[in-house]
Specification:
The chain is an alpha/beta fold and about 400 residues long. It contains ten helices and 17 strands. The protein starts with a helix and ends with a strand. The relative contact order is 0.20.
């Protein structure tokens, strides 16, 4: 094929659109859980993608899952949709008919697929298919036991493992099943461009992975306390499993001749939890020694850097040169950025809070002007502008930090 056929370039504007977009979201992945940050997890596939791609060193998200996913899909601050979108919730995060990244790409002829966790509404009328996805598979709720696929014991949504909104029972490990579904979709063939959204359950509680991933750490002693050692071993294994599945995606794209046409974006939905109790239906133990966010302060559900600054990168062979972007990005930027790459022109003003940051990611704008990043939380809010970050909680004195120092 010619370069034009591969990249669908508009040479007059010097803007190229990607045929294929693979958007991967890890769940509760801590800053220091991964190899490229010197963490305990074995992540050779992710490390290679970071090394040969664009590391997004200051990528900001909301401090918990539903708000991040709302911002990702809508391009807007989640608080604009109401308080239910600012906390982990199984209520409808966004009104039906809200333009989403999926619906925008769908309107351009993309096949749009989701495999994994939705967490933007757990009732059948709020499924991903109602927001622009041709197919969806996984759970509608905020998490699932990796073996039973069930949600919290006291929830009316204890069972939401589904395909296109139809609930069913399936044996197997959740991460393996989600990855298999994504692989099936991205290798199904055809000339139609695709958007594959893979919001993994890993590494959210309950934390566990198949034995093969635990064996990768044979001989490693994570803690003198055997209970804490076993807890960290399960976490490390789940991180390695996540990494292996991303590696399988890359291998499949290469094998099917799609790699050079595929933009891969990876992020976490928030920072990690250092310890946690298991409230889900199953037999996985609690995790008293879980994730690491060092040297960042705080963790999931806080407005400090450890809760809102996450592991992220973009990778596109031949289009993105290896680099480390220090400019702050926000999760709501991905809708305008990816829609802009695809050539989507909204019929009405989408009222985005995110910005099209492709030139920043591609190195064409190495020193962008400072921009505000506002992050709301039920217990407070933060604002970043340049090197300054202000945290104002509902109780207590505001805190002002210079992040450069």
């Amino acid at each position: 094929k010619t370069a034009y056929e591969i990249y669908q370039c508009d040479w007059s504007s010097d803007v190229c659109s990607s045929d294929l977009i693979l958007l991967i979201v890890a769940d509760d992945l801590g800053w220091a859980d991964v190899g490229w940050h010197g963490g305990f997890g074995k992540t050779p596939h992710l490390d290679k993608l970071v090394r040969t791609g664009v590391e997004l060193d200051q990528h900001y998200v909301q401090p918990v899952c539903t708000p991040t996913r709302t911002a990702l899909m809508s391009g807007r601050c989640p608080g604009r949709f109401g308080p239910q979108a600012l906390s982990p919730s199984n209520l409808r995060a966004m009104p039906l008919g809200t333009p989403t990244l999926a619906s925008a790409l769908q309107s351009l002829g993309y096949r749009t697929h989701l495999a994994g966790k939705w967490h933007l509404g757990a009732r059948p009328e709020w499924i991903p298919n109602a927001y622009g996805f041709d197919t969806s598979y996984g759970t509608l709720t905020g998490a699932a036991d990796p073996w039973t696929h069930k949600y919290r014991k006291d929830s009316p949504y204890v069972d939401t493992w589904h395909r296109d909104g139809k609930l069913f029972h399936e044996e197997g490990n959740a991460t393996e099943l989600v990855a298999a579904e994504a692989l099936r979709r991205i290798t199904q063939g055809g000339d139609q461009p695709w958007f594959m959204y893979v919001p993994f359950h890993a590494v959210h509680s309950p934390v566990d992975a198949p034995a093969e991933y635990k064996r990768l750490y044979d001989g490693v002693k994570f803690h003198e306390d055997p209970v804490k050692h076993e807890s960290r071993l399960r976490m490390a294994a789940m991180v390695a499993q996540l990494d292996a599945k991303v590696g399988a995606f890359v291998e499949a794209l290469e094998r099917t001749g799609q790699r050079d046409r595929t933009l891969i974006v990876f992020t976490s939905d928030n920072g990690g939890l250092e310890s946690l109790r298991n409230a889900y239906v199953g037999t996985v133990p609690d995790s008293p020694f879980n994730s690491e966010n060092d040297p960042l302060r705080g963790q999931k559900n806080t407005l400090y850097e450890g809760g809102t600054r996450v592991c992220a990168f973009a990778h596109w062979p031949g289009r993105l040169k290896p680099a480390k972007v220090a400019a702050p990005l926000y999760v709501a930027d991905w809708f305008p950025t990816l829609a802009g790459l695809a050539g989507w022109s909204p019929a009405q003003d989408p009222r985005w809070d995110g910005l099209d940051r492709w030139k920043v990611i591609a190195g064409e704008e190495p020193a962008p002007a400072p921009r505000m990043i506002y992050i709301a939380h039920p217990q407070g809010r933060s604002l970043r502008l340049g090197d300054w970050k202000l945290i104002a909680m509902n109780k207590g004195k505001p805190q002002l930090f210079n992040l450069a120092t």
